[in-house]
């Protein structure tokens, strides 16, 4: 990934990917603790 790119389309796609990953992480996080993989 190139955060200093000036290509607008690339930056828009990268931003969308980051948002999707953040949303997915928010769904997964509670399960990680529920199943005991990590402790709070």
Question: SSE layout and pairings?
Answer:
Blueprint (H helix, E strand, L loop, with lengths): L7 H27 L6
Walkthrough of the structure:
- This protein has 40 residues and is mainly alpha-helical.
- Helices cover 68% and strands 0% of the residues.
- It contains one helix and no strands.
- The protein has one helix at 8-34.
- It is elongated.
Apparent shape: elongated
Biggest sheet, in brief? none
How many beta-strand runs? 0
Distance between the termini: 31 Å
Task: Please count the helical segments.
Answer: 1
The percentage helix is 55-70%
Order of helices and strands: H
User: What fraction of the residues are assigned to beta strands by DSSP?
Assistant: under 5%
Global mean pLDDT:
88
Radius of gyration: 15 Å
Poorly predicted ranges:
none
Classify the secondary structure makeup into a structural class.
Answer: mainly alpha
């Amino acid at each position: 990934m190139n955060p200093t790119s000036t290509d607008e389309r690339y930056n828009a796609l990268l931003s969308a990917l980051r948002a999707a990953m953040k949303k997915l992480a928010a769904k997964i996080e509670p399960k990680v603790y529920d199943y005991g993989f990590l402790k709070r």
